[in-house]
Amino acid sequence: MAALFSQDWMLEFGTAWNAEPELGQALARISFTSNIGYGFIGEDAPRGFIKVENGMVTEAGEYGGQELNWDLRASEADWNKWLDKGLGMVALGMAYTRRKLRFEVGDYGAMIKNPAMAGPFIKSFAVMGQIARD
């Protein structure tokens, strides 16, 4: 097991992302390319990072100062809750509205209004939940 958003955890997440058709293949259809950071509210920088090119993760690991298109932050307790129980559209909306899930970088409104992005975004939480963590 690895700590949430650690180098090893992010590598496993990237592999699982690419293996999930509702993520990699779905995002490839819209040529989705982004640098995404994941971390905790109150910290200066995200902890984990993935580079997605045409829907597939091509780089994953600890965040090292890369320019981000998306930077997702929540408390460790909230991340663990969502990874254990999943996160649906209603819960996502509530988490965003209550500022439990913060987009330090990225446009939540544009993402959530685009079904080609919203579905895979929700699926990413289920895939994260498959990765063992300390």
Secondary-structure arrangement, i.e. CATH architecture? 2-Layer Sandwich
> What's the CATH H-level superfamily name?
SCP2 sterol-binding domain
- Specify the structural class: alpha+beta
Query: Which residues sit in consecutive blocks of at least 5 with pLDDT less than 50?
Result: none
* SSE run: HHEEEEHHEHH
Report the CATH topology name: Nonspecific Lipid-transfer Protein, Chain A
Strand sequence of the main sheet, in spatial order?
A: 3-2-1-4-5
The beta-strand count equals 5
Please state the overall shape, judged from the principal axes of the Cα atoms. globular
What's the rounded overall pLDDT mean? Answer: 94
Fraction of residues in β-strands: 15-25%
Q: Report the C-alpha radius of gyration, rounded.
A: 13 Å
Whole-number count of domains:
1
> Mind describing the biggest β-sheet?
5 strands, mixed
Distance between the termini: 6 Å
What is the secondary structure topology, with strand pairs?
Elements: H1 7-19, H2 24-28, E1 34-40, E2 48-53, E3 56-62, E4 70-74, H3 76-85, H4 89-97, E5 102-105, H5 108-112, H6 115-129
Helix pairs in contact: 3-6
What do you see in this structure?
This protein has 134 residues and is of the alpha+beta class. It has a single domain (7-129), classed as Nonspecific Lipid-transfer Protein, Chain A. Helix content is 43%, strand content 22%. The chain has 6 helices and 5 strands. The protein has helices at 7-19, 24-28, 76-85, 89-97, 108-112, 115-129; strands at 34-40, 48-53, 56-62, 70-74, 102-105. The chain has a 5-stranded mixed beta sheet with strand order 3-2-1-4-5. Strand 1 and strand 2 form a beta hairpin. The longest helix has 15 residues, at 115-129. It is globular, with a radius of gyration of 13 Å.
